[in-house]
User: Fold this.
Amino acid sequence: MKRIIAGLLLGLSTVAAAQSFPSRPVTMVVATVPGGSTDFTSRLLQEPLSRALGQPVVVENRGGASGNIGTELVARAKPDGHTLLLQFSGFHVGNPHLFKGLKWDPVKDFTPIAMALYAPQVIAVGPSTKVTTMKELVDLIRANPGKISYGSSGAGRYSTCPAKSSSSRPAER
Assistant:
């Protein structure tokens, strides 16, 4: 936790080197709805970061559109270090490929300042598939277009799959 806060402070300090920072409360936008691991992480960071900065840190959940609502809000905020984005990295990696006409660019509009949470992902299949490697799973999906279903928390979220599904599907591109 101390390393995360130190990383955040180091990144923020370069933003406003010539002026007093922070000069007002800091908003930490969470690009997901309350209750998930990203929101939980923001709540763990909120108080220690506020103490370290000497200003309130306000957590603002802006979930929706697979993280695009909160992410765009931060991309359009004044780049003075007073608005932070805490999100699942998959939004930055996947959403530019899943959504047409994004109003934010993962490279041009953001400067990463700290890794706040590691969240390993797991892909599991039922034993009847006889699949034991990722290559075998990809081969199975490609050999059966539109026939393999999967579970996901939504397009651009932790798991997306190139196959069509009855439970979820990537957004149209």
Residues 159-173 have pLDDT under 50 and may be disordered. Strands lie at 26-30, 57-61, 83-86. DSSP finds five helices and three strands in the chain. The first helix runs from residue 2 to 15.
